[in-house]
C-alpha cells in the first residue's frame, strides 16, 4: 500500500487535475504495479521513480487515458472514466494532457511546424499562419524555429525528442506526463523544459508528473515523489518543495 | 473415407465462406464508423481536413493522369480499330459508336481506372496508415485531441472518391478522342459522321453507369485500404502482407461490384 505524507486536504475538488485510487496494471499476467494512489493538484509536480522502465510508462499511459487499469480508478479534472466514455469527450480529455513517453513519435509525413500546429488547427480552427505566430516564441526558446520546415527524419535525435516536448508545450495542457525527459534531452535542455513547466505550475496553469532515473535528478523541480518498488507505490514528499499530494 | 473427405471439404468451405462474410461485414462496419465520425466531428479542423483532401486529390487524381491517359489512348485506339475491322467484316460499321460507348465507356474505363488507383493509391494508403499505426503515430494524433478516423479517413475517402469519378470520365473522353483520331487516320470512315454517331448513341443510362461505378469503386478502394491499414498494430512486418491483402481484396470487391452494376443497368 502506498504511504501518503504531507497531505493538503483543504484544496477544492476542481483543483485536482488527476487522482488515482488503488491503481493496478498487469502485463502478461503479472502486475506491473498495484495499489498506487495519489492526487495531483493544479500547480503541483510529481516525480515517479520505478524499478522497471515499463512501470512509469504504463502508469503514464493509463493516466493519459490510453488504456484501462486492471484495478483501481482514475479521475481527471473531477470526472471519472465514465464521464469520458463518449468518443468526443475522451478525445477532448486526451487533448488536455501532454504525454511524452519513450515511444512517442512525431507524425512522419508532416513537417515539424505542422506537427506543432496540428492541435491548434484541428481543435481551435486556427490557420497554420496564426498557429505559427502563436507558437513561435516557444519554438524559438527551444531552438526549433529554424527547423520548422523540416520533416522528422531530417532532425537530429535530440532535436526530434525536443520537438515532441514542445509539441505538448504549445497545447498548453493542464496536465503534463513526461517519461524520463533527461534521457531524451540532456541536462541543459532538460533544465530548460522543467523550468518552463515548473513556471507554468507555479502560475497554477498546470500540474505535471515526470519520471526520472535516478530520482535525485528531478527532485528539485517537484513537490513529491512516488517510489514504485516491488510493483507497488510508496509516496515520499520532496524535501525542497514541502507541498505534498492532495489528500 | 470419401464421406469423411467430403465432410472435411464442406467444413473447410463453410469456414472459408464465414471468414469472408465476417471480413466483408467488418469492412462495412468500418465504413459505418467513418460515416458516424464524419457527422460527429463535423466542423472540426475544417481547414486541415480540406488541405488533406486537396493533397489526396492531387496524389490520386492529378498524379495518375499520365498513366490513365496512356492506358486510355492505347485502349481507345486498339478498340476502335479492332471494332471497325470486325464490324466491317459483317457489314455493321454503323454499330461502332454504340459498341465503343458500351465497351469502353461502361466497362473498360471504370475497371482500368480502378485498377490503376488500387495499385497507385490503395497501396500507399494501406502502407501509410499501417506504419502510422505500428509506430504509435495514431496514438500521437489522439493525444493532440485529433480523431484519427476523422483526420485520416474522411479526406482520403472523399479524395479517392472524387478522383476516381473524375479519372473514369477523363479515361472515357481520352479513349474516345484517341479512337476517333485513329479511325480518321487508318480507316475511310468520316470523322464528322463518327462523332455524330457517338453523340447520338450515348444514353442517359451510360452516364448513370459511369457515375455509379466511379462512386462505388471510389468508396470501396479507400475503405478497404484504410481498414487494412488500421489492422496493422502488432509489428512492422505485418504491414506488407496486409497491403498485399488489401490490394487483392480491393480487386475482388471491384470486380464483384462491376458485375452487379453491369447486370443492374443491362
Give a verbal description of the structure.
The complex is a heterodimer of chains A (247) and B (266). Chain A is of the alpha/beta class and 247 residues long. Chain A is built from seven helices and ten strands. In chain A, the strands form two sheets. Chain A has a six-stranded mixed sheet with strand order 6-7-8-3-9-10, sandwiched between helices. Chain A is globular, with a radius of gyration of 18 Å. Mean pLDDT of chain A is 85; it is low at 1-11. Chain B is an all-alpha fold. Chain B has one domain (45-264). Chain B has nine helices and no strands. Chain B has helices at residues 2-40, 46-62, 65-89, 96-134, 137-143, 148-186, 191-201, 204-231, 239-264. In chain B, helix 1 (2-40) crosses helix 6, helix 3 (65-89) packs antiparallel against helix 4 and helix 8 runs antiparallel to helix 9 (239-264). The A-B interface holds A 64, 66, 87-88, 91-92, 94-99, 103-109, 118-119, 121-123, 125, 127-128, 167-168, 171 and B 37, 40-41, 44-48, 128, 131-132, 135-137, 139-147, 151.
Give the gist of this structure:
Chain A has 247 residues and is an alpha/beta fold. Chain A is 35% helix and 26% strand.
List the helices and strands and how they pair.
The complex is a heterodimer of chains A (247) and B (266).
Chain A: E1 16-27, E2 30-41, E3 45-50, H1 53-63, E4 71-76, E5 79-80, H2 87-95, E6 97-100, H3 112-124, H4 128-141, H5 157-169, E7 175-178, H6 181-202, E8 207-211, H7 216-219, E9 224-229, E10 232-237
Parallel strand pairs in A: 3-8, 3-9, 6-7, 7-8
Antiparallel strand pairs in A: 1-2, 1-4, 4-5, 9-10
Helix pairs in contact in A: 3-4, 3-5, 5-6
Chain B: H1 2-40, H2 46-62, H3 65-89, H4 96-134, H5 137-143, H6 148-186, H7 191-201, H8 204-231, H9 239-264
Q: How large is the count of helical segments of chain A? A: 7
Oligomer: heterodimer
Give the SSE order of chain B as H and E letters.
HHHHHHHHH
Low-confidence stretches of chain A: 1-11
Biggest sheet character of chain B = none
- Name the CATH architecture of chain A: 3-Layer(aba) Sandwich
Detail the poorly predicted runs of chain B: none
- Beta-strand content estimate of chain A: 25-35%
Count structural domains of chain B. Answer: 1
Q: How much helix is in the residues of chain A? A: 25-40%
Strand order of the largest sheet of chain A: 6-7-8-3-9-10
Mean pLDDT of chain A: 85
Amino acid at each position: 500500500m502506498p504511504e501518503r505524507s504531507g497531505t493538503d486536504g483543504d484544496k477544492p475538488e476542481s483543483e485536482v487535475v488527476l487522482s488515482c485510487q488503488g491503481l493496478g496494471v498487469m502485463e502478461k499476467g503479472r502486475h506491473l504495479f498495484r495499489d498506487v494512489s495519489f492526487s495531483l493538484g493544479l500547480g503541483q509536480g510529481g516525480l515517479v521513480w520505478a524499478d522497471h522502465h515499463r512501470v512509469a510508462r504504463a502508469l503514464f499511459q493509463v493516466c493519459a487515458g490510453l488504456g484501462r487499469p486492471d484495478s483501481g480508478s482514475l479521475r481527471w479534472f473531477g470526472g471519472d472514466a465514465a464521464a469520458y466514455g463518449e468518443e468526443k469527450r475522451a478525445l477532448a480529455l486526451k487533448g488536455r494532457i501532454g504525454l511524452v513517453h519513450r515511444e512517442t513519435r512525431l507524425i512522419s509525413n508532416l513537417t515539424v511546424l505542422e506537427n506543432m500546429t496540428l492541435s491548434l488547427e484541428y481543435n481551435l480552427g486556427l490557420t497554420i499562419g496564426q498557429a505559427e505566430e502563436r507558437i513561435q516564441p516557444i519554438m524559438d526558446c527551444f531552438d526549433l524555429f529554424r527547423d520548422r520546415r523540416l520533416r522528422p527524419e531530417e532532425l537530429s535525435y535530440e532535436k526530434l525528442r525536443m520537438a515532441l516536448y514542445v509539441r505538448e508545450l504549445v497545447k498548453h495542457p493542464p496536465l503534463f506526463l513526461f517519461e524520463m525527459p533527461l534521457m531524451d534531452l540532456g541536462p541543459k535542455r532538460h533544465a530548460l523544459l522543467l523550468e518552463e513547466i515548473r513556471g507554468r505550475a507555479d502560475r497554477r496553469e498546470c500540474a505535471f508528473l515526470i519520471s526520472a532515473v535516478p530520482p535525485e535528478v528531478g527532485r528539485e523541480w517537484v513537490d513529491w515523489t512516488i517510489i514504485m518498488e516491488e510493483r507497488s507505490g510508496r509516496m515520499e514528499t520532496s524535501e525542497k518543495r514541502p507541498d505534498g499530494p492532495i489528500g | 473415407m470419401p464421406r469423411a473427405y467430403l465432410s472435411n471439404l464442406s467444413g473447410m468451405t463453410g469456414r472459408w465462406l464465414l471468414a469472408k462474410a465476417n471480413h466483408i461485414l467488418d469492412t462495412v462496419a468500418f465504413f459505418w464508423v467513418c460515416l458516424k465520425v464524419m457527422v460527429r466531428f463535423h466542423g472540426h479542423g475544417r481547414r486541415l481536413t480540406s488541405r488533406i483532401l486537396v493533397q489526396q486529390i492531387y496524389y490520386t487524381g492529378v498524379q495518375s493522369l499520365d498513366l490513365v491517359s496512356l492506358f486510355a489512348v492505347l485502349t481507345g485506339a486498339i478498340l476502335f480499330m479492332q471494332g471497325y475491322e470486325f464490324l466491317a467484316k459483317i457489314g455493321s460499321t454503323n454499330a461502332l459508336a454504340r459498341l465503343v460507348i458500351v465497351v469502353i465507356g461502361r466497362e473498360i474505363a471504370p475497371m482500368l481506372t480502378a485498377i490503376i488507383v488500387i495499385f497507385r493509391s490503395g497501396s500507399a494508403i494501406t502502407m501509410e496508415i499501417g506504419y502510422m499505426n505500428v509506430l504509435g503515430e495514431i496514438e500521437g494524433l489522439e493525444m493532440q485531441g485529433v480523431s484519427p478516423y476523422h483526420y485520416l479517413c474522411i479526406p482520403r475517402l472523399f479524395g479517392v472518391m472524387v478522383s476516381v469519378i473524375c479519372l473514369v470520365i477523363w479515361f472515357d473522353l481520352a479513349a474516345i478522342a484517341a479512337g476517333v483520331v485513329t479511325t480518321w487516320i487508318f480507316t475511310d470512315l468520316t470523322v464528322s459522321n463518327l462523332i455524330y454517331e457517338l453523340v447520338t448513341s450515348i444514353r442517359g443510362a451510360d452516364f448513370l453507369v459511369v457515375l455509379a461505378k466511379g462512386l462505388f469503386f471510389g468508396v470501396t478502394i479507400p475503405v478497404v485500404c484504410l481498414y487494412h491499414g488500421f489492422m496493422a498494430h502488432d509489428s512492422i512486418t505485418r504491414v506488407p502482407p496486409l497491403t498485399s491483402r488489401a490490394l487483392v481484396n480491393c480487386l475482388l470487391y471491384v470486380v464483384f461490384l462491376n458485375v452487379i452494376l453491369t447486370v443492374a443497368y443491362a
